[in-house]
Amino acid sequence: MGVSLERHQIAQFAIHAKELVAWNVSTDLTAITDHVEIAVKQFLDNLPVPAFIPPGSRLLDIGSGGGFPGIPLKILRPDLHVTLIDASRKKVNFLKHIIRTIGLEDIEARHIRAEELRSKLQAEARPNVIVSKAVSKLERFLDWAIPLLCRPGIIIAMKGRSLETELEAAISRIEGEGLILTVKEYRLPLLDIQRCLVVLSDSRDEFKACQSPR
Predict the structure, then answer these.
(1) Could you report how far apart the first and last alpha carbons of the chain are, in Å?
(2) CA triplet 40, 76, 203: central angle to 5 degrees?
(3) β-pairing, 107-111 with 58-62?
(4) What is the average pLDDT score of the chain?
(5) Where are the domains of the chain?
(6) Is 85 left (phi over 0), alpha (psi -120 to 50) or beta?
(7) Is the CB of residue 44 less than 8 Å from the CB of residue 1?
(8) Domain 7-208 class?
(9) CA gap 162, 147 in Å, rounded
(10) Strands 58-62 and 180-188: what pairing?
């Protein structure tokens, strides 16, 4: 997928995967239980995302669940300042456990809904990048993300291949906010599954400089 991983990053992914499987018995973190599918769908699936994220960004992962995509993105990009939020206290407890176990810094997990977060954020702490993976329909995700976004900023939704209906429902909101739409399609290795990134930004220049291969 055009991205090379360091040994320590692979080791951190492995710890996350091992703990995910162990905690999933009681916490319902993921419906994916096959080890190959976990590796590909939960970890390798994140590799195209950092190319759209400017250096040193404040990143918010809405509905992080088992830590996706926020924790893998932090492993791939240690320069990011990451906040993970989820409405499930059990899932947030898992996120905090993973952060401690891997030893990640400048990342926090909060038990809060996106709708409640806006009033609790100081203006200077608002994220300039907001991401989600399969949390909701695109239109609903934008209802959560746009009020929280520090503009100019970037919104990234990780989606499967069936995207047309969601885009049709959300396009008026996207255009009304003056956001530029970019859709990147890619295929996951081994499983040969198509994925899409929906990237919304105030300007293509925001992420253009970040898209050289790592």
Answers:
(1) 11
(2) 100
(3) unpaired
(4) 92
(5) 7-208
(6) beta
(7) yes
(8) alpha beta
(9) 26
(10) unpaired
Q: Give CA–CA dist 175/97, Å, rounded.
A: 40
* pLDDT for residue 214: 34
Cβ(106)–Cβ(82) below 8 Å: yes
**Mean pLDDT across the stretch 125-137?**
94
Q: Which amino acid is at 178?
A: G
pLDDT in tens, 10-48: 999 999 999 999 999 999 899 998 999 999 999 999 999
Contact 124, 102 (CB under 8 A): no
SS3 label, residue 12: helix
- Beta strand 129-133 pairing with 107-111: unpaired
Q: Phi/psi at 211 (nearest 5 deg)?
A: -95, 5
- CB atoms inside a 10 Å sphere around CB 190: 11
Tokens of 205: 């220049």
Q: Residue written as tokens 């203006």?
A: 123
Lookup: tokens for 180:
């530029």
- For 40, the token pair is 């590909």
Tokens, residue 94: 């898992």
pLDDT at res. 72:
98
* 8 Å CB contact between 102 and 12: yes
pLDDT at 212 exceeding the cut of 50: no
Which pair of tokens denotes residue 15?
Answer: 């710890």
Q: Tell the burial category of 99 from Cβ atoms under 10 Å away from its Cβ (0-12, 13-18, 19+).
A: buried
Would the pLDDT of 124 be above 90? no
Average pLDDT over residues 165-182: 96
Helices 89-102, 7-27: inter-axial angle, 10-degree rounding: 150
